[in-house]
Structure formats: structure tokens, C-alpha cells
Amino acid sequence: MTGPNGFGKTTILRVIEALSKGQEGISYFENLDFRSIKLNMLNGSSFLIQKNDNQLMINRKPFFKSDFLDLYLKDVDQSFAKYLFRYERLLPAKALRPYKSVEEELRYLDLYKRKFNVIQDVIKDKENYLKHFVSDASAKKEFALLEGFKEKVYFIHEQRLLKSIDEFRLLEEENEDGEINQETIADLPENFKCQIRKVIRMYTNLSTKLDESYPRRLLNDDSIFSKEDFIKRFDTIQEYNNRLSEYGLSVKFVSLVPEFNEKYARALKVYCDDIDQKYAVYKGLIKKLDLYTEIVNSRFRFKKCFINPDKGLVIKEGDNEIDLKQLSSGEKQTLVLFYELIFNIKKGMLILIDEPEISLHIVWQERFIDDLKRIININDCTAIVATHSPQVINNNWDLQVDLGGLYSAQLNHG
Question: Which residues, in sequence order, are bridge partners of residue 350?
């Protein structure tokens, strides 16, 4: 998706993200200047949002008035009203966030009182409003249309190198916008370690189950296992060992290949079947690690990326390990962007990517769509990219939707 500045590329992505949140995302449209937005579903249904005289209409039915923000503007300065609106997911409203206890809700209320001196009535008005809002039967019926869409959208914003810390850290030092930011690059090593630990747990659980059932399966297996089968299967097992060792994984299925003995052929066959199943647990992770390191290392000229269970992500220049914070902005963008694309996307998701070209060299931009296609193939997902860069489009002009062209066409037919 392309278009001149101000034509709404990022707004379209934010609209899609808001709709994917269902009722929790509807407040985005209160501050948005628009007349109508229509989402057409593959099943033939549609979801229409309109704004007439500051009143939202959902599928042509009145929803709620946008003047509820006056509650804040009356008792709270505008900057805090903006903060509440932007971070209303932090408010103690059970309708939007299922708290574990009343005490947890009170902690949120107390947080606002101590930090911003907010009077309880203002928060209570918002809470009551939201409870009434989500209890509306008609609203629930309309938003049911979005259920298949909910939680299936992943938005990668243009500001990828800084992240907002969760609400429980609001009492710490903030920036001028009321957020606590830190570089997302600092989290990548731990993120990779978590990815690896998760798969190791799956491997351990499967191994336990297979080991417990091994005697029964051995007695029930009457298949033939020849010496040729044995040699082929153990060659494959050695390949498994080599692949795992590339990422420092300590799993070693077999250290020495045993001599083939027809007397024990059945036991060897069941053993090889088990190793195939155990390696299958790692297979998806290995494929993603391969793709990530290949994409990153094809871009980095003097540095190289390594991944292992102990340190997670390591960048080296020769034998020297580089502090991630010392990398260039383009290198950081590459590491963060492709981590999100490869490891945070679930099957069937819609990815929204805003300005992937930020800080990237032209050659790196030209590779982006081709690499994105490979990621889409692995994760079985779909993507919408908003960009200003012809280099990002590269040889994929058949995929382009130009908002400037659509606007000109409307004018010509208007």
C-alpha cells in the first residue's frame, strides 16, 4: 500500500487493528475524523461504522455519543484526558479487562490516584459507562461479526525500536508523553532463550511419554527393518544431531552408531521412529532460526548473528562480541523487525507492517518483500505493508495498491 503523506496509509492499518480488538477497539473511532468505514468479510457479511453529528453508528444502528470525553475535560486537564483515552485499557473496568480480584482493581485505581491525583468520580464514570457499553445486547450482536477477526491481527508499528513498559511500571521515570520507553533490541536475547526453552519443554514432555510407552510399542511392532533401512535412518539421525548443534542445543540422539544386528532390528526400528518424533518437535524452531539467521547475516557485512540457548542472540564482529545497543539503527531495525515477523506471528494471522524501510539501506529495502514472502510461506499468514519506498516494492508492482491513484480515480468519476 502506497500513497503520498497524509493519504491515510497508517490510519488504514490502525483501523484494521482497532476492528480486530472488537469492543475494546471501538474507542479508537471516537477521535477519528471519518464518515464511514466498511469491513467486508470473506463469508459475505460486513461491518459498517459511520459517524454522523459526532454519533457513532454500527451497522446503521446508533451506538454511543462521542461527547463522553467531556467527563474528563471537566475535571482533568487535557493532557491527562489524552492519556486516559490512549491508555484506557489500563482503567479498572471489568468489562474490558478481567481482573483476578477486587484488590487488583483497587491497585489500578490507587496507581492513578497517586500518580495523577485523579478523583475517583472521573474513573467511576468511565467504569460505569464501559459496563453499560458492553452490556448492550444490540452491541454484542453486532460485534459478534468480528469474532473470527479478533486476535488475528498483528501490527508492527513504524516505531519498533522503543517499547512501552507495562502499567505496573508507571511509577518509574517517564518520558514527556507519560510513557516509560526502552529499546526493544535489549529484549531479543531473552526472547530467543524463551523460544528455545519452550521447545525444550515440549521435547522433554514428549520424550517422557515415548519412553514410558516404549516396551508396549516394541512388543506390538512387527514391521521389517533391514540393514539398508538401518543405515539410512541413522544417517538421518546424524543430520539431526548436526542441525541441533548449530544452535548449541545439547540434545544428542546418538553418539555412536551401533552395529546392525537382525536380532535387535525391531528395537532399533522403534528407537529410530522415536527419534524422528523427538526431532519433529525442534523442526519448526530450526526452520525459523535458519530463516532468521540467513536473512540477518545476508545483510550484515562485517558482523554475524548467532543464536544459542545460553545467551539467546549474539552479534560478533570477528571474535569480538558486540553490545546490541552499539549496533546501527538499520541493524537494530533488521533484528527487531524480522524477529517479530518470524517468531511472533501465528498461523492465519494478518500482519500489518508500517514503513519497513525505516533506517534500511536501499539494497536491504529491495530484499524485503522477497524475504517477507518466505516468512509468509513458513507462518501461513497474510500481510499488508504501508510504504513510501519504491525500493521496498522492487519487482512487485502487481501487488501495489496506490491510495493516491484511487483518490484520483474517485475524483475523475465524481
Answer: 153, 382
Q: What is the DSSP letter of 349?
A: P
Cα separation, 236 vs 232, in Å, equals: 6
Taking the C-alpha atoms of residue 233 and residue 273, their distance in angstroms, rounded to an integer, is 9
Residue 321's H or E segment, with its range, is strand 320-322
Among candidate residues 233, 250, 232, the one with its CA nearest the CA of residue 241 = 250
Assign 23 to helix, strand or coil: helix
Q: Which span out of 99-108, 128-137, 161-170, 256-265 was modeled with the highest average pLDDT?
A: 256-265
| Mean pLDDT value of segment 317-329 | 93
Amino acid found at 77? D
Distance of CA 102 to the CA centre of its chain: 31
Distance, CA of 385 to CA of 168 (rounded, Å): 33
SS3 85: helix
Contact assessment for residue 160 and residue 333, using Cβ atoms and an 8 Å cutoff: yes
Decide which of 64 and 206 is more confident: 206
Torsion, Cα of 162, 163, 167, 173 (10° steps):
-20
Cα–Cα distance between 107 and 147 in angstroms, integer? 31
Summarised one tens digit per residue, pLDDT across range 178-199 is: 445 478 899 999 999 999 999 9
Distance between CA atoms of residues 1 and 385, nearest Å: 6
Instruction: List beta partners, residue 382.
Output: 350
Mean pLDDT calculated for residue range 237-253: 84
Query: Residue 124: its pLDDT value, please?
Result: 52
Give the three cell numbers for residue 325. Answer: 545497543
C-alpha distances in Å from residue 7, one per residue of 111, 354, 396, 404, 405 = 39, 14, 21, 7, 11
Taking alpha carbons only, the member of 310, 242, 308, 252 closest to residue 278 is 252
Contact 241, 275 (CB under 8 A): no
Give the distance between the most distant pair of CA atoms in the chain. 87
**Identity of the residue numbered 71:** L
> Tell me, what's the pLDDT at 88?
47
- Are the C-beta atoms of residues 384 and 350 closer than 8 Å to each other? yes
pLDDT at 4: 84
The string of DSSP letters for 363-409 reads HHHHHHHHHHHHHHHHHT-EEEEE-S-HHHHTT-GGG--BHHHHHHH
Ordered alpha helix ranges (H), 99-187: 102-116, 120-135, 137-143
In this structure, what C-alpha cell is assigned to residue 146?
468480528
